[in-house]
Amino acid sequence: MAMKISGIxxxxxxxxxxxxxxxxxxxxxxxxxxxxxxxFTYTKHPDLPMKGxxxxxxxxxxxxxxxxxxxxxxxxxxxxxxxxEEQKGVTALWNERLSYGPQDDDAISKPWADAxxxxxxxxxxxxxxxxFRPVSDKDSYQQYxxxxxxxxxxxxxxxSKRIERFGANSPEVKDWVQAQDQVFSxxxxxxxxxxxxxxxxxxxxxxxxxxxxxxxxxxxxNFDAAEKMFKDIAADSGxxxxxxxxxxxxxxxxxxATLIAGAGKTxxxxxxxxxxxxxxxLADSRTGDLRPAAARLMSFVRFRLHPEERLHELAGAVVxxxxxxxxxxxxxxxxxxxxxxxxxxxDELPGAVKxxxxxxxxxxxxxxxxxxxxxxAQKWNQTHSLPWLIAVLxxxxxxxxxxxxxxxxxxxxxxxxxxxDSVAFHSIRLxxxxxKKDEARTKLDALLSxxxxxxxxxARNLFMxxxxxxxxxxDDFLKYAMRVPATVTTDMEGNEMPxxxxxxxxxxxxxxxDGDSAAIMNMRIPVAMLAKASSSxxxxxxxxxxxxxxxxxxxxxxxxxxxAAELTPVLEAQLPKLKPELDSYAKASGPDAKRFAAVFxxxxxxxxxxxxxAGVGRTTELDKIDDYRDNWWCxxxxxxxxxxxxxxxxxxxxxxxxxxxKPKAPEPGSPDFLTEPERAQAAAEWKKLxxxxxxxxxxxxxxxxxxxxxxxxxxxxxxxxxxxxxTRYGCTDxxxxxxxxxxxxxxxxxYPNTDWAKKTKYWYGK
Length: 766
Prior knowledge:
This protein is mostly helical. Helix 10 packs antiparallel against helix 11 (245-260), helix 17 runs antiparallel to helix 18 (386-395) and helix 18 runs parallel beside helix 20.
């Protein structure tokens, strides 16, 4: 039974999201709603379009994929590829699941509307407001799909037959249409039941009316009345509806069972009655064309009454070759049914999930921890199959003694196998972690030399992330630090789907920095080396510009004036609007004066921040306030983390906090080409920078300190105005109000008659 949130509730939620979002700091929201986010490697589904994956182009399988993708992957890994019809079916299922959104009720009811418009004698057609109906009068938030596309198609087809027999303007057709209007008026609410047909009406019209009355009761939620009426129709051999009525009586019982027990529950007694009814229907040789619909309804019933048996049946159906007629529905039911067997702790999974290899593999592959690793190894030793080879490889953090057969098996998987990319990725990952970096580099270079079309973009970016770890020079590092995202999206549902709007589609596929790249540059490479790299021709212009600005700000905050001076001509050429403030910095004498000159530049340009950004980054002009508070920086100790921390626990590499024993976000590695002094320098720089507060605290504090010592500075009043502004539009914390008030007080005490003071009417915070 399809459930949804009511229309008014959807509108209120959207408004609430939009309003509350304005107060979210960037640290909390990341690249959330309304901000374009680059996805370098899909984690919820394979690369788009889905037909590639449906055809066996599996790429590097992710344990975070939804189960339906892993079920299809299992087919290919087991040597049972999908035929073209099966591929179409599963692709349709995925597209439907990923295209969640408001239902076009008008399009669904259009066949009926078109047919009804041909009967002018019946008067104007009443609007069918919505196809979903509240679960109860007391719960308007939970709704279910009441009137389906099939109902409107059947009504249109029946009307066409009645018009052909009686004429479009006949009293019989007019009366029939008005009765059907009453039936559909119950779709979203109400309880209108058509009156009995006139005794003198033709038998076909009387039979239709009995059916319309039963259907009206069904849509109105009068299930006992509807069931009795459908059974009476079934007993009337003269009715044209007697053939379908037993099925509709069973359907009424199913609807009743799913609603009377409350949201998310079913009544097993009523479902048992429906099962008995369906058994009789399916056993009747006269069922004929009703059999597929009855079988689908029986699947629904067994899904809820006998979940373990049904899970086993569906597992067999999904792995069966040439199951094109039912694969789409079977796969849908199979993956939904797995929800009821899910447990937070892998070791507590019920035995039912181990009965079938595909189910066992999907649950195990998606799990993390020692239990999942041990079971994967056990299954690999028993089966030596590709699915379990990938499972055990993906959960192995570092090579261990006794794994030679595993490594040899991985090496035996040849290019062209659906398992190749996954096995190659994890084999290379283990080579690097075991210190065999030259061998890993050779394999990676061979893989990446195949060209962009040879790999899904997600897989290519994963291989590039490994290649980054074995870079031999800074230019080599930069080559693999920049990557083309698999997609760019502002997806609010979190489905990793490209936007429908044209703005996001216009995003160019130019390379940008991935999360691991930016983390290493920010935390592991000394600022002097980054300064030289920002002029490297290995980088395209847009990345040289971004990097030069970030490194200049970082150098200035670290009081590395010589490095900042080295970058000044580069910045002036790339960003001419910075020239006046850069000149002021160059002319400033002494560390305090230079620090204030840098702070003044940052205050005037909200797009400045002391780190290289990953992904799309800030898109608002450098000197403009971003509408969603993407200005300056948040807490720097949270800025640089790898882009795929959720995958590390599946790859057996998740570290734990020594004090809490809870998982820690993975830290970036340190490039091999760095010397020990360079590593130490980078660590010291990052430690100092990460201790800096959020920008709306740091910038006002620096401005107030300078102004109090240098009240005659002509930039003083403007700097204080800009400092207060930063506390309104930047990423704040609990201490920000005191910094906002401090800058406000100094501005109004020392410079009360300036335009800057007059423009600053408030300070910000609680």
